[in-house]
Amino acid sequence: MAALGAFLALAIYLLLGCQTLAKNDAPCQLSKWNNGYKTFLRRHVPSGMPTSLNQNEWENFIRSKGNCDRPTQSFLSPEELDKVKDVCTNRGGKVYKENLCISKQPFTFVTVRSEQGTCGIRSVRQETKHLILACEVLDNQCLPVHFEGNPGINVLQTNLRSLILFLSLVY
């Protein structure tokens, strides 16, 4: 029985440890996951997205992509892909925390909330917020690999936080 407990503890440690090791602690470091950018594009900038906010169209779209297991999904316009990629550079973004960058300008995107596993759509909303993206180096280019939810933070707030930290270090 003690061996089983030790085995379970080790398994949990390894599973959790591997997850935290897969994330870089700063943006634009060499990626530990080679498919991160392709997965980001497939999940957040897919071709054939509905152009309306019609729940039936979005349900059919999400079903066709096989993404019913994700209860919250955000979609960016393919026409803005270059601007989205710029969030990972000083042209369009700045370091937020860990491996996350925040866009200098707000973006408009669609967020779809559904019942997990059923594809039953609860809401389809157009939102305008600053993007928070995990950015890593793939093919010698810093690219987005994860779309982080933004609880309402903007660049002004991050600049203010940086200024307060600086002043606390100086005085």
Automatic annotation (TrEMBL):
Give the record's keywords alphabetically. Signal
Read off the lineage from the record: Eukaryota, Metazoa, Chordata, Craniata, Vertebrata
Q: Which domain of life is it from?
A: Eukaryota
**Which residues, by range, are in coiled-coil regions?**
none
| Organism listed in the record | Mastacembelus armatus (zig-zag eel)
Q: Which InterPro entries match?
A: RNaseA-like_dom_sf (IPR036816), RNaseA_domain (IPR023412)
One family from Pfam that matches here is: RnaseA
UniProt protein name: Si:dkey-237j11.3
Q: Which residues form the Ribonuclease A-domain domain?
A: 33-151
How far does the signal peptide extend, from start to end residue?
A: 1-22
